[in-house]
């Protein structure tokens, strides 16, 4: 290929900013600008080239099969133009993106082979690699994950699901197709790539423009002054009529970089090339976008009776002759075949003589091109079986369960309103002395008794049965769900405040580890994020939307892209923490089921056992759970005695009615597990009475023997005894006091 020249004379010009543009800058601009069919924006590009001697240009590709000339020759032309104008080009080998898009069946080893094959082609065909870096996305992201993933999450938080779906053309999809969760993650990641690579110019195809514009919009959202310039190159059509671009899954549409001369000739001979018509004529497009830029001319050889040989220097002259009929389709095709074969011959020679290249091509030719997503099918809720026998028993696997294991089982099982599956739980406790139990929370404001007292009770039961409890402080998840306005510093403060409460509230910390999600994920990102991506690509968007309940959302709400990422990450947490038991609320059940479905999909034998605890209702009628954004619905862990009394006095507590009675629920799920009894003191209504079971309380309440007023007084007393150590701690401990003051000042927001 001939060396590019940037010496055409131009006059100095001035930008709207007032910056004077020299002749040299104008020449560089003309070369760089020639790469793009469209530029957003020309003035920004001139300004960039005037200020920066070596701007960074981002280009990239998914390794996904054999390379056609639209990928190969056009990229080489564009890269060589850019480097000749002083640009540094970073070529992003998007292996993780090919994986998420299920190219080559999502086989990363095959994807890596294809990436190496691509590099061989670029080298053989004449890419100037002096100012070019080939960067594997997986390697770069793994090396700097602590920078990359917070950026991806921020982009996801700031864009609605609808906005992200409008970018589906970057993967050759439409927003109305059946999408996987990975397709949403893909867009957010590609947007982040621009900033991660510190790109000044995004030099990608016209089909990638939506995500490049998303990057510019993100700059506005974060008040970033300098936006990436978008330089979108033309998309070469396929060989046949109506094929908007070459496709490697349809060999008839494409010429591949190592096609033999005869193959090129046959393909061009069969190509759509209507006489006298320029518009939509792929053969003329190849001349315009490949041959003329490569050779600076196009030579047609023909008999004198058909006009003789002619060398064209401009596409306008070719188009004029073709439209007039002076240039016949056969002569055009013959000249095009000859020029293409001349360009491709060094590539053929390289793949015949270089043993490494030859081996790579052989492997790539053997790969099946695929795009079918490996989405998991949703499974119905698994049947529950309850075994309450205290004697030694045998599970379905034939394992003998000792009395000690049965006692441990009873303790652990008492935590859950529901257990999936009970036999699996018995087997686990019989085989493993210290199973790992995963619990967690979003730090998002003051703590109410449903989070505080119930968690202390449940954790203490688990540790007494020998479990190790990992409490996941889900700071990144609170940010994704826009808790406390997504402010991570505030979220961190709330997390520390929660830990102070549990310590003061009597949690046995001997076998408990508090783990900050951000710290753990950053430390094990190489393991975590591929897991998130795999979960995302195996689940369709509808399946993930059904998990909205875990964030207190419905699937009909307007969601951000972050709320698609959140369930995939929470599912991955279970495996990152190597959890045997998921001990979370009933509202988290759907994502825990997702984890079990994932195990079935990847043929993982040991599934996490789901132990879902009861959700305490709010204080008022119809409030399904306590809410920190509605103080009237909740009793907070540091509420003063008078506050607790006032809230319980105002609580919904209909006489003789048990169903939907929050006061009775607090007795059942907080007081009885805490004290093993419930004392009612009454001078009027039958005197003092100590209940040992909830059934006895219910019987007396339904009959009218236990009056609502007496129930409330006894409940107040028991709650205040429980909460007093927490109040004392927050009054006497300076650190705790300071944390509480900060938390109370934070506005609870979603």
From TrEMBL:
User: Where is the region Disordered?
Assistant: 378-400
Known EC number: 6.1.1.1
Q: Which UniProt keywords apply?
A: Aminoacyl-tRNA synthetase, ATP-binding, Cytoplasm, Ligase, Nucleotide-binding, Protein biosynthesis
Biological processes annotated in GO? tyrosyl-tRNA aminoacylation
- Write out the annotated subcellular location: Cytoplasm, Cytosol
Q: What enzyme category does the UniProt record give?
A: ligase
Q: Which reaction does it catalyse?
A: tRNA(Tyr) + L-tyrosine + ATP = L-tyrosyl-tRNA(Tyr) + AMP + diphosphate + H(+)
Q: What's one GO-annotated cellular component?
A: cytosol
Tree of life domain:
Eukaryota
InterPro entries in UniProt: aa-tRNA-synth_Ic, Tyr-tRNA_synthase
Q: Does the keyword Cytoplasm apply?
A: yes
* Single GO MF annotation: ATP binding
Task: Tell me where it mainly resides.
Answer: cytoplasm
Q: What Pfam family does this protein match (any one)?
A: tRNA-synt_1b
Q: What does this protein do?
A: Catalyzes the attachment of tyrosine to tRNA(Tyr) in a two-step reaction: tyrosine is first activated by ATP to form Tyr-AMP and then transferred to the acceptor end of tRNA(Tyr).
**Family named by the database record:** Belongs to the class-I aminoacyl-tRNA synthetase family.
NCBIfam families reported in the protein's UniProt record = PRK08560.1
- How is this protein named in the record? tyrosine--tRNA ligase
Its lineage opens with: Eukaryota, Viridiplantae, Streptophyta, Embryophyta, Tracheophyta
């Amino acid at each position: 290929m001939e060396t590019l020249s940037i010496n055409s004379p131009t006059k100095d010009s001035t930008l709207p900013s007032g910056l004077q543009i020299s002749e040299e800058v104008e020449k560089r601009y003309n070369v760089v600008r020639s790469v793009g069919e469209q530029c957003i924006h020309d003035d920004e590009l001139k300004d960039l080239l005037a200020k920066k001697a070596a701007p960074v240009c981002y280009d990239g590709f998914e390794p996904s099969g054999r390379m056609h000339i639209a990928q190969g020759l056009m990229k080489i032309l564009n890269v060589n133009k850019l480097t000749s104008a002083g640009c540094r080009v970073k070529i992003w080998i998007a292996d993780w993106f090919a994986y998420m898009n299920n190219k080559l069946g999502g086989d990363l080893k095959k994807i890596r082979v294809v990436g190496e094959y691509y590099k061989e082609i670029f080298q053989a065909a004449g890419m100037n690699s002096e100012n070019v870096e080939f960067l594997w996305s997986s390697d770069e992201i793994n090396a700097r994950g602590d920078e990359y993933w917070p950026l991806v999450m921020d982009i996801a938080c700031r864009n609605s699901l609808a906005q992200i779906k409008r970018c589906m053309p970057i993967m050759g999809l439409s927003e109305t197709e059946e999408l996987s969760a990975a397709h949403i993650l893909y867009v957010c990641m590609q947007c982040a790539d621009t900033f991660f690579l510190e790109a000044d110019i995004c030099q990608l195809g016209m089909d990638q423009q939506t995500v490049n514009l998303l990057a510019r919009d993100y700059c506005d959202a974060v008040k970033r002054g300098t936006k990436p310039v978008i330089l979108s190159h033309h998309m070469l059509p396929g060989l046949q009529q109506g094929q908007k671009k070459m496709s490697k899954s349809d060999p008839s549409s494409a010429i591949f970089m190592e096609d033999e001369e005869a193959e090129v000739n046959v393909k061009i001979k069969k190509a759509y090339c209507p006489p006298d018509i320029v518009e939509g004529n792929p053969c003329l497009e190849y001349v315009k976008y490949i041959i003329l830029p490569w050779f600076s001319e196009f030579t047609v050889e023909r008999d004198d009776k058909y006009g003789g040989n002619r060398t064209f220097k401009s596409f306008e002259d070719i188009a004029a002759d073709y439209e007039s009929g002076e240039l016949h389709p056969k002569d055009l095709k013959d000249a095009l075949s000859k020029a293409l074969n001349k360009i491709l011959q060094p590539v053929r020679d390289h793949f015949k003589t270089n043993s490494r290249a030859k081996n790579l091509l052989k492997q790539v030719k053997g790969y099946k091109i695929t795009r079918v997503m490996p989405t998991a099918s949703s499974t119905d809720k698994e049947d529950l079986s309850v075994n309450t026998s205290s004697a030694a028993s045998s599970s379905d696997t034939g394992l003998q369960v000792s009395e000690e294991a049965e006692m441990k089982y009873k303790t652990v099982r008492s935590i859950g309103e529901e257990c999936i599956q009970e036999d699996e739980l018995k087997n686990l406790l019989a085989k493993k002395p210290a199973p790992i139990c995963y619990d967690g929370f979003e730090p998002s404001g003051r703590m109410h008794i449903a989070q505080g007292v119930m968690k202390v009770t449940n954790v203490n039961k688990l540790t007494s049965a020998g479990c190790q409890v990992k409490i996941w402080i889900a700071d990144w998840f609170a940010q994704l769900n826009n808790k406390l306005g997504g402010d991570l510093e505030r979220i961190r403060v709330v997390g520390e405040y929660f830990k102070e409460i549990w310590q003061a509230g009597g949690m046995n910390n001997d076998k408990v580890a508090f783990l900050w999600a951000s710290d753990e994920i950053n430390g094990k990102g190489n393991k975590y994020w591929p897991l998130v991506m795999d979960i995302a690509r195996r689940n369709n968007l509808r399946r993930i939307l059904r998990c909205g309940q875990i964030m207190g959302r419905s699937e009909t709400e307007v969601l951000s892209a972050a709320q698609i990422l959140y369930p995939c990450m929470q599912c991955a947490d279970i495996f990152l923490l190597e959890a045997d038991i998921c001990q979370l609320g009933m509202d988290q059940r759907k994502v825990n089921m997702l984890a079990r479905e994932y195990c079935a999909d990847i043929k993982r034998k040991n599934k996490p056992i789901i132990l879902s605890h009861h959700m305490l209702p709010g204080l008022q009628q119809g409030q399904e759970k306590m809410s920190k954004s509605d103080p009237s619905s909740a009793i907070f862990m540091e509420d003063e005695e008078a506050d607790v009394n006032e809230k319980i006095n105002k609580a919904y507590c209909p006489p003789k009615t048990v169903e939907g009675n929050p006061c009775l629920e607090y007795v059942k799920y907080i007081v009885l597990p805490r004290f093993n009894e419930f004392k009612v003191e009454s001078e009027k209504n039958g005197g003092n009475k100590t209940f040992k079971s909830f059934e006895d309380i219910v019987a007396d309440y339904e009959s009218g023997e236990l009056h609502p007023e007496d129930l409330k007084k006894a409940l107040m007393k028991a709650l205040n005894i429980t909460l007093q150590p927490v109040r004392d701690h927050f009054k006497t401990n300076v650190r705790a006091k300071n944390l509480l003051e900060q938390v109370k000042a934070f506005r609870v927001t979603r």
